Amino acid sequence: MIEWIVADDVRPLADALADVLVEPLSDPMAAEWIAVPTEGMRRWLRLDLARRLGATSPERADGIVANVELPFPDRLRQAVIEAERAERAERAGRAGQGARGAATADPWAVAPLTWTVYSLLREAAGSDRYGPLAELPPGATWFGRARRVADLFDRYATRRPELLERWAANKAVDAFGFALDRARKWQFRLWRAARDRIGDISPPERFRTSLERVQRGDLAVDLPERIALFGLTTLPTGDPFLDLLDAVSATREVRAFLLDPAPAVTEALRAHTLAAPPVSLRRADDATADLVTHPLLRSWGRPYRERTVLLAASEAGRGTPAPRLLPGPVRPDPPATLLHRLQHDLRHGIAPAPDFTLGPDDRSVQVHACHGTSRQVEVLRDAILHLLADDPTLTEDDVVVLCPKIETYA
């Protein structure tokens, strides 16, 4: 089974997840498997679950979290790839291919792929076979260039598997089937050369077959009987990720707990997509921004809109269950502060209007002008300490600091 659960606040999602985890797995030694999108969400969720699981009472919050894996979502795809590769290695070992057949190291992983690309680039140095990669600019290294290319090919394998499937069939086209122009054809040539040098088909070429086997239960994937995905605002690789979840959910319980910043906008997007499912899912053809009136949702909300359209299109095309909306916390109505008004407008998809009267003590949104990094940190520290002192219900766990260069400010 697969279930999609959405909320406009992370706490109802955490409560719903805890209600599921209270029921133990049939194997007491198996670890719970909960994919999270970021390191920050991983830390927050671990602390929040520890307040509830095994607690003597909700007020005491003396629970504990143990034997819970919190990987990133792509680990699910990797688990399928590793299961298929281990099975092939076992078959090769039984066939008498010795140590090479028993090896399970993935030659398509970034590290070994880097060395494969490195050897190809060095051999072709000075020729025009790989276009702009023929010459090394001042200050660059062949290894650094090979590593960037290997990262690029790895991202294609994750996010554009259909592209590599076409390249494997010797079709020099892009992800949508259009012929590659001359400036980009070097990628096709270099990837084909790497495939020949490795001497093994790439994971995207056998992934569809692997998914079919997972769906039938023929491929033993190292995953527990139930898995969860928590706090996602996007689908990591789009439609291929839905294919992956469909296959895994045939033999396991799968629950996706999604954050929804604007339920009202989501309903409008779902209704629009269900009424006229898109023929193309290309970003250039997406006109859903026209259905959104709030400027922040139009600009910053594009990944969330794309997720909504993908799920609705899947609901119309393959029968994906409709998401279940959880009620959010009680909020002031009408909004009492400027921050409440901003949140209210975003949640309901309402364009901001200049009709809000700011109270004399309203400091819910603050702007501090500071000179230099050190002064910014000092002012931020004082502001946070004031907030913690003024509100006894606020804790350090409720504070998130966002900045473009976190290492510098840390």
Q: What does this 3D model show about the protein?
A:
- With about 400 residues, the chain is an alpha/beta fold.
- The protein is built from 16 helices and six strands.
- A six-stranded parallel sheet has the order 3-2-4-5-1-6, with helices on both faces.
- Helix 5 packs across helix 8, helix 6 crosses helix 7 and helix 11 crosses helix 13.
- The longest helix has 21 residues.
- The relative contact order is 0.12.
Concise account of the structure shown:
The chain has 16 helices and 6 strands.
Helix content: 40-55%
Shape: globular
What is the beta-strand fraction? 5-15%
DSSP summary, beta strand count:
6
Q: Element order, helices and strands?
A: EHEHEHHHHHHHEHEHHHEHHH
SS class: alpha/beta
Quickly count the helices: 16
Distance N terminus to C terminus?
43 Å
> pLDDT average, as an integer?
89
Uncertain residue segments: none
Q: Output the radius of gyration.
A: 25 Å
Q: Reading side by side through the largest sheet, how are the strands ordered? A: 3-2-4-5-1-6
Reported for the largest beta sheet, the result is:
6 strands, parallel
Keywords, please?
410 residues, 6 strands, alpha/beta, globular, six-stranded parallel beta sheet
Helix and strand topology:
Elements: E1 2-7, H1 10-21, E2 32-35, H2 39-52, E3 68-69, H3 74-94, H4 98-102, H5 110-123, H6 142-159, H7 161-168, H8 185-198, H9 203-216, E4 226-232, H10 239-248, E5 253-259, H11 263-275, H12 295-299, H13 302-318, E6 324-325, H14 338-348, H15 373-390, H16 406-409
Parallel strand pairs: 1-5, 1-6, 2-3, 2-4, 4-5
Helix pairs in contact: 5-6, 5-8, 6-7, 9-10, 11-13
